[in-house]
Write a structure and sequence with these properties.
The complex is a heterodimer of chains A (121) and B (401). Chain A is α+β, with helices and mostly antiparallel strands and 121 residues long. Chain A has a single domain, classed as Sufe protein. Chain: A, CATH 3.90.1010.10. Helix content of chain A is 45%, strand content 22%. In chain A, strands 1-2-3 form a 3-stranded antiparallel beta sheet, with helices on one face. In chain A, helix 1 crosses helix 2 and helix 2 packs parallel to helix 5. The radius of gyration of chain A is 13 Å and the shape is globular. Chain B is α/β, with parallel strands linked by helices and 401 residues long. In chain B, the strands form 4 sheets. Chain B has a 7-stranded mixed beta sheet, sandwiched between helices. Chain B has a 4-stranded antiparallel beta sheet with strand order 11-12-15-14, covered by helices on one side. A two-stranded parallel sheet of chain B has the order 1-13. In chain B, strand 6, helix 7 and strand 7 form a beta-alpha-beta unit. Classes of the chains: A alpha+beta (121), B alpha/beta (401). At the A-B interface, helix 1 of A face helix 11 of B. Bound molecules: pyridoxal-5'-phosphate.
Chain lengths: 121, 401
């Protein structure tokens, strides 16, 4: 299957929620040393809900598209729901199957998100 | 031009495979595969242990392989130590030589273009010992900037012969001369992983102290590599691993070790690997290393010209093919190397993407990752044409319609 579908390329060329939030509740980032992908997120949480989320960094089409689709998907969701999200949810969002190496790219944004919300006091 | 794809069975099964990752590991010739199979099929006995025929044969073939390696790099047979790979050879030097000889305040010199395996051990060594870690920088053409001031008080110089990213062929012989002039007792380690497979090497002529390379990057099997070292140094070093085959006498109170090379070859070695590395050397010698090098220059020259025509593509390293090995690292503006490699894969073209085990170099170049195409004796101009076509598809994929 061609992984460079329109949804991936669109989200790479014009990512949603790309940028910074001035006064986030929490932020954090992480990189994937094997390919140099580096994604950070800022989020605002109110009453256990994500009311704003933005990401920034460098990455391949898969990791950027994944971050774009993920941030869009979790906006308005509560933290417990997000903590339940896993690999299958990401693959569903992307609509593609991936080899193990590229799976790491796709999952990096979710890892960053989980890490970020774990920092909420 | 050499065209020998028919000697490599992988192309029988996959006729349209374009393999451009020989820097990572090379394909295997039928003769090398046969040598592995012959050992396991016909005389798969241990070496040095049996008096029966097939064990004697295994021992003989294993030692013949050592001779072939020695002749191939102009060394004495007893100075050839079989290990797993370049990484293990460098670590042996780190454990058995450097741990005992590098002290607080000593200077260890390496370069920014090293593979992690010839960088991390020395960086860690310096941290542990309180030694000074110094680094040759590179210029905009990916060549070492040989500042004389860096040569002062150097106790250990660890340098790659050919860069696995930039392709730069370092003037190792000249550098060694200079460093020895400044420090007669300096020990010089050369990482030859990307040199031995591609050009004629003579370790005596280079005048280094240690030279390391991997069999799998020169048609041989994975899991077999070589450390060459000067006898006088190897004799004075402590063993790396303890165990069988490396001892001459063991009592309850004490152990005497064997002479080199056996002192450093504890346990059952990769017998088939060593023998098949010998076969790989036979194969390369039959072609002739001068021809191997000439072929690589031709391919690299052609690739440099064709790739430089590709829009938004940036090539790293020296501009001339004669100044570099058969490897070209590049980036394309706006497209991540992983995506380049993945789309090329859909055309059956194999290239490497990532930091190529050289993160300090990529930091220096100001990029997180690169794409890398690399060549060997079976690479043809047709492969390069396919690569260029593939890259056009990559760019087209990422062009907004
Ligand atoms: C220059 C250089 N040094 C060292 C190595 C490490 O080789 P190995 O993985 O066989 O130990 C490589 C291989 O990637 C290399 O290109």
């Amino acid at each position: 299957m061609d992984i460079y579908r329109e949804i991936i390329l669109d989200n790479y060329n014009h990512p949603h929620n790309f940028g910074r939030i001035l006064k986030p509740t929490v932020s954090s980032g992480q990189n994937n040393p094997s390919c140099g992908d580096d994604i950070s997120m800022d989020i605002i949480v109110k009453n256990n809900l994500i009311t704003d989320i933005k990401f920034h960094g460098l990455g391949c089409a898969i990791s950027i598209a994944s971050a774009s689709l993920l941030t869009e998907n979790v906006l308005g969701k509560n933290i417990d729901q997000i903590n339940m999200m896993n690999k299958d949810d990401i693959l569903k969002l992307l609509g593609i199957t991936l080899t193990p190496t590229r799976l790491k790219c796709a999952l990096l944004p979710l890892e960053v998100l989980h890490k970020t919300i774990s920092l909420i006091q | 031009m050499i065209n020998i794809k028919s000697d490599f069975p992988i192309f029988r099964g996959q006729k349209d495979l374009v393999y451009l990752d020989s820097t990572a590991t090379t394909l295997k010739s039928q003769s090398v595969i046969n040598a592995v199979s012959d050992y396991y099929s016909n005389y798969s006995a241990n070496v040095f242990r049996g008096v029966y025929k097939i064990s004697e044969k295994a021992t003989e073939e294993y030692e013949k392989a050592r001779e072939k390696v020695a002749n191939f790099i102009g060394a004495k047979v007893e100075e050839i130590i079989f290990l797993r790979n370049t990484t293990e050879a460098l670590n042996l030097i780190y454990y058995s030589w450097a741990q005992n000889y590098i002290k607080k305040g000593d200077v260890v010199l390496t370069s920014i273009m090293e593979h992690h395996s010839n960088f991390v051990p020395w960086q860690q060594l310096c941290k542990q010992k309180g030694a000074e870690f110094k680094i040759f920088d590179i210029d905009e053409n990916g060549k070492l900037i040989l500042h004389k001031s860096l040569l002062t008080n150097v106790k250990l110089l660890a340098l790659t012969h050919v860069s696995n990213v930039l392709g730069t062929i370092n003037p190792v012989k000249e550098i060694i001369k200079q460093v020895r002039l400044a420090n007669p007792n300096c020990v010089v380690v050369v990482d030859g992983a990307q040199a031995v497979p591609h050009m004629k090497i003579n370790v005596v002529d280079l005048d280094c102290d240690f030279y390391c390379f991997s069999g799998h990057k020169m048609l041989g099997p994975t899991g077999i590599g070589v450390l060459w070292g000067k006898k006088i140094l190897l004799d004075g070093m402590t063993p790396f691993n303890y165990g069988g085959e490396m001892i001459s006498r063991v009592t309850v109170e004490k152990t005497d070790f064997k002479q080199i090379p056996y002192k450093f070859e504890a346990g059952t070695p990769h017998i088939a690997g060593a023998i098949a590395l010998g076969t790989a050397i036979d194969y390369l010698s039959k072609i002739g290393m001068d021809k191997v090098r000439k072929h690589e220059i031709e391919i690299t020259d052609y690739a440099l010209k064709e790739l430089s025509k590709v829009d938004k593509l940036k090539i790293y390293g020296p501009t001339l093919a004669v100044e570099r090995g058969g490897v070209i690292a590049f980036t394309i503006e706006g497209i991540h190397p992983h995506d380049i490699a993945q789309i090329l894969d859909s055309e059956n073209i194999c290239i490497r993407s990532g930091n190529q085990c050289a993160m300090p170099l990529h930091q220096k170049l100001g990029i997180a990752a690169s794409a890398r195409a690399s060549f060997y004796i079976y690479t043809t101009k047709n492969d390069i044409d396919k690569l260029v076509l593939g890259l056009k598809k990559v760019i087209w994929t990422f062009t907004e319609k």
